[in-house]
Every structure is written in C-alpha cells, then in structure tokens.
C-alpha cells in the first residue's frame, strides 16, 4: 500500500529550501505541466525552482523521503514529452530556471562552465564576449537550456562540423537519485580514468539524475561566414552537392540544411513577410553555410567557386548568396520557421530520424511512396540536417477540403509511426536523432532496441535509480 503524501509538510519543506516564491502550485503551475506541443499533460504536487546545486540536492532528498518522483525541466521546449510529469500527483517538477549562471569562461583552455538553466542563446553570447564560439545552435535557442540540451543530446544545425551536445561537453555536475552531488566538471580533453559517467547522463533525459552544470568546449570565433540557398531537383542531387561541398570546402563547411518546396510554401503561407528568393518554384532547397578563419573575401570566393562548379555540373538549378548578415539571417529564417509554420497549418506527426547519409535519397523515395499508399492525402514536410543524416520527416494532415478532423488524423499516429520507423530500421537508422525518447517514443524504443541493449539499459537505471524516482515514465517507463 502506498502511503499518502503529507502535502502540507512537503510544501513547507520546499519553501524552506527554495523560498516560498519559488514553490509554485495551483493554476500558476499549469505552464510547467504541459509540453510545448500540448500533447502531454500531467500533475504535480508542486513546481520548485531551486537556485543552487545544493538546493537541488535537498529537493531530491526530500522527494526520496516522501516517496515522490522528481521531474527535471529546463526550458520546456522538448518535442517528446520528456520533461512533463505523468497524471499522478506524486511528482515534483524541478525547474532549473534559477540555475542560470555562467560560472566561468577559460578562453585559453577553450572551455566554459555553465549552470543547467542557462539558455542556449546566453551561452552563445557569453562565448562571443570572450572571443570564442559555442557552436550548438537550434531554433529554440532563446528558451532551450543547456541542461535540456544535454539531457536530450541535442544536435542542431552545426553538427556537421562541431558534433552534437555530447561531443561539446567535457564534464558534468549531477545530483544523483539519492540526492548526492557528483562534481565531475573537469575541463580535460584527455581523461582516461575508468567508466565515462558523463556519457551516462547525457541523453538520459533526467532519468538517472539531475544535471546541474556542465563544462563545455569552445572554439575560435570564425572571422567570416558565407551563406547561400540553392534550388535542386532531387534529394539525390542534394547528396551529390554535399559530397562536392565537403571536397571543395572541407572543414569550413558548417551547415548543410535540406528542405522541400512544400516546407518553403508553408513558411510563405504562415509568415507572409518571408518569401522564397527564387522567381520559380523548385522541388528541393539546400541552405549552405561556410565559416572561415580567413577574411570575408576569401570566404566569398570559396562559396562562389563551389556554386559555380555545382551549376556547371548540373547539380543545382539556381542559387542565391547572402551579401550581408541581414540577408543571411533572412535565408536562415526560411529554414528555422518550418516547424512553426507546420504547427500553424494544423496537427502533425513528427519523426526525428537518422539514416546513413548515403541512403537518404533511397529512404525518402521509398518511404514517401509507402506513406502515400497507406495514408492517402497526407502531406510530407521533409527537412533536416542532411550533412549528419538527420531528417525531420514529418506528416501533416490532408489539406483544405479533405474530410478529416484533427482527432482522426492524430489517431493515425501509431500506424504512421510503425510505417516510418520500420523503414528507418530497415535502412539501418535511428528513430530518434536529436529530440530524445521521452513519453512519445517509449513504446517504439522497445520495438527497435535489441533485448541485449534493453537489458543493459535497465541494469544502469536500476543501479543509479533503484526506486525509479527520477523522471519516471520516460525512455524505459
């Protein structure tokens, strides 16, 4: 029999730890209890906003004392319900919003120590102030936090050159499920002293402990950047262009983003001040970014020569080069507004998948045809980070005039998932490239992970969180 929760005692203890103003209940807690896409909603005894690692540890120990679960939450921008509590009231949502200090920047060592609640955009700014680059970049960077980025092993637009969140992290500070503090904030690039505990917590979505701070890598700030948008006939041509760009630009190639004409048309429809730079319509587009440690003239020449070769070989149909920072930002906005435009169009079924780069065109061609046969009328919103094999292969409801409401469309989600994820599995890919598993893909994970993998994952969970107090219901359930 589960003992009832002494709510008054818990709330009083939380107020003693974090201050009364930082213990949120009732209707004020509502924004913390629903995910960004409004697909998952839950309940909690309270939302608490601790301001230090020690306060986090005290909250976790209090939760353990009263048999409560702890649900860590950063900017609440996740797409898989990983930071949303379940429907029970035996939860405490632990918001990291007050863990928001940049503790230190070491420009010579090219490292920075950040608390988990620092927004990604602030981390980028702090690096720039020191003449350095923190390259993790994604559409939600104004509100997404470092702790959330690490907990989902976020990727973004520059993985091609710099790697994902895991690659950018050297050390962590973590509060364990027992309320102990692991101080692993080393700033070393070589540290071969046993099991890599850091990598256990990165991508674990708060199910093993609470990340409270991280030591991340910095890089020299590029002296110049070149941006271009190109129009193409096919994904095959986009892959050939990628190969050419990697050969021509080598390590200066920072971004290579693919999106279909339908993606662009949605942005134009729902963001009327954003228009295609091309006079004609084209089936596919790629946004290319080159960043260089040479002067702007050298970067422009490099990008121009690349596009000239691509045009001469027939790989691209048209190209536009940004000649200012403003023009570059406008081109990037066409790419970055796709998710919001799709949301404005109506309900959608999202896939955050990765496939070996060499097989992406074949995957898109075969899976598009399969989805069209099984779910007539749906519209494909395909875009993503082609340079690292990550596609957001999304399905939107049939367009205007179709006889299908949002409810019946969303009811198709399990069947759509099975169709697409079976294809991903067949092509040697992953059902989650950068968004995590959360609640959304929990059952899907069980279908595609081998029994050996699942056994090892469950053994790690039992070892680090034997009472299943840390973010229950996510990843493994």
Description of the molecule:
- Pfam families: FAD-oxidase_C, FAD_binding_4.
- InterPro entries: FAD-bd_oxidored_4_C, FAD-bd_PCMH, FAD-bd_PCMH-like_sf, FAD-bd_PCMH_sub1, FAD-bd_PCMH_sub2, FAD-linked_Oxase-like_C, FAD-oxidored/transferase_4, Oxid_FAD_bind_N.
- Keywords: FAD, Flavoprotein.
- Belongs to the FAD-binding oxidoreductase/transferase type 4 family.
- This is FAD-binding oxidoreductase.
- The protein has 477 residues and is an alpha+beta fold.
- The protein folds into 4 domains: 89 residues, 2-Layer Sandwich (Uridine Diphospho-n-acetylenolpyruvylglucosamine Reductase, domain 2), CATH 3.30.43.10; 119 residues, Uridine Diphospho-n-acetylenolpyruvylglucosamine Reductase, domain 3; 115 residues, Alpha-Beta Plaits, CATH 3.30.70.2190; 92 residues, Alpha-Beta Plaits.
- 35% of the residues lie in helices and 21% in strands.
- It has 16 helices and 19 strands.
- The strands form 4 sheets. Strands 12, 13, 14, 15, 16, 17, 18 and 19 form an 8-stranded antiparallel beta sheet that branches. Strands 5-6-10-8-9 form a 5-stranded antiparallel beta sheet, with helices on both faces. A 4-stranded mixed beta sheet has the order 1-2-4-3.
- Strand 5 and strand 6 form a beta hairpin.
- Helix 1 runs antiparallel to helix 2, helix 7 crosses helix 9 and helix 12 runs antiparallel to helix 14.
- The longest helix has 17 residues.
- It is globular and about 70 Å long.
């Amino acid at each position: 029999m589960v003992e009832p929760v002494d709510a008054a005692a818990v709330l009083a203890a939380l107020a003693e730890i974090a201050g009364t103003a930082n213990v949120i209940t009732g209707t004020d807690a509502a924004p913390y209890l629903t995910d960004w896409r409004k697909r998952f909603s839950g309940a909690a005894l309270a939302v608490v906003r601790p301001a230090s690692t020690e306060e986090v540890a005290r909250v976790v120990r209090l939760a353990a004392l009263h048999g409560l679960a702890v649900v860590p939450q950063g900017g609440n921008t996740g797409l898989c319900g990983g930071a949303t509590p379940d429907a029970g009231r035996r939860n405490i949502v632990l918001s990291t919003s007050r863990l928001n200090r940049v503790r230190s920047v070491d420009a010579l060592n090219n490292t920075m120590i950040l608390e988990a609640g620092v927004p990604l955009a602030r981390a980028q700014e702090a690096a720039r102030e020191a003449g350095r680059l923190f390259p993790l970049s994604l559409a939600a960077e104004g509100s997404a936090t470092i702790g959330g980025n690490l907990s989902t092993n976020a990727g973004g637009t520059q993985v091609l050159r710099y790697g994902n969140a895991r690659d950018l992290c050297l050390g962590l500070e973590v509060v364990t499920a027992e309320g102990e503090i692991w101080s692993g904030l080393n700033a070393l690039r070589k540290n071969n002293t046993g099991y890599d505990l850091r990598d256990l917590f990165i991508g674990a979505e708060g199910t093993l402990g609470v990340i409270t701070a991280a030591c991340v890598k910095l890089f020299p700030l590029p002296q110049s950047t070149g941006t271009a948008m190109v129009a193409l006939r096919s994904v095959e041509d986009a892959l050939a262009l990628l190969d050419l760009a990697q050969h021509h630009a080598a390590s200066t190639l920072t971004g290579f983003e693919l999106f279909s004409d339908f993606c662009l048309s949605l942005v134009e429809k729902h963001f009327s001040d954003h228009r295609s730079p091309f006079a004609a319509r084209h089936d596919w587009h790629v946004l290319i970014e080159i960043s260089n440690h040479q002067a702007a003239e050298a970067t422009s020449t490099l990008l121009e020569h690349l596009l000239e070769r691509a045009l001469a070989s027939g790989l691209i149909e048209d190209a536009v080069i940004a000649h200012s920072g403003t023009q570059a930002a406008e081109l990037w906005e066409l790419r970055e507004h796709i998710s919001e435009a799709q949301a404005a169009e109506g309900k959608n079924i999202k896939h955050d998948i990765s496939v070996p780069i060499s097989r992406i065109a074949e995957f898109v061609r075969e899976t598009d045809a399969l989805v069209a046969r099984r779910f007539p009328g749906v519209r494909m919103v395909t875009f993503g980070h082609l340079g690292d094999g990550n596609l957001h292969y999304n399905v939107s409801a049939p367009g205007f005039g179709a006889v299908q409401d949002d409810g019946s469309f969303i009811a198709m989600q399990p069947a759509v998932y099975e169709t697409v994820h079976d294809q991903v599995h067949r092509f040697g890919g992953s059902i989650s490239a950068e968004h995590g598993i959360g609640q959304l893909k929990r059952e899907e994970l069980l279908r595609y992970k081998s029994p050996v993998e699942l056994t090892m994952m469950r053994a790690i969970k039992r070892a680090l969180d034997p009472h299943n107090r840390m973010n229950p219901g996510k990843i493994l359930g």
